[in-house]
Amino acid sequence: MAVHLINQSSRLATAAHLVVDGDTVIATNDGAALSAMEVFADRPVTIALLEGASITPKAMPTTKSLKIISEADWVRYTTGDETVVSWG
Questions:
Q1: Taking the CA atoms of the chain, what radius of gyration do you get in angstroms?
Q2: Which residues, at least 6 apart from 32, have a Cβ–Cβ distance to it below 8 Å?
Q3: Which residues lie closer than 8 Å to 82 by C-beta, 6 or more apart?
Q4: CB 69 within 8 A of CB 77
C-alpha cells in the first residue's frame, strides 16, 4: 500500500497511473478531493481530505466515501511504513 499526497488537481492525471487498488490518496484541498473522487470512483482506493482543508464540506458529493483526516492522522500516514508519494 502507498500513500499519495495530492496538492494540485492538475497532478492527479499523472498520479492516477501509479495509484493501485488499496492505496490511499490524501487531498489537501477541495478541488483535489473532488477530482480524486471522480478519477477513482470505480476503484478500491481510499480518498482522504485533510481536516480544515475543505471550505464547503457539505457540498462534497456522497457517491464515494470521503474520509476526513486530522493533522495527527496526516502525520501517521506520512511517517508510517508505507511508501509516500507527493504530487506537487
A1: 12
A2: 6, 7, 8, 9, 12
A3: 1, 2, 3, 24
A4: yes
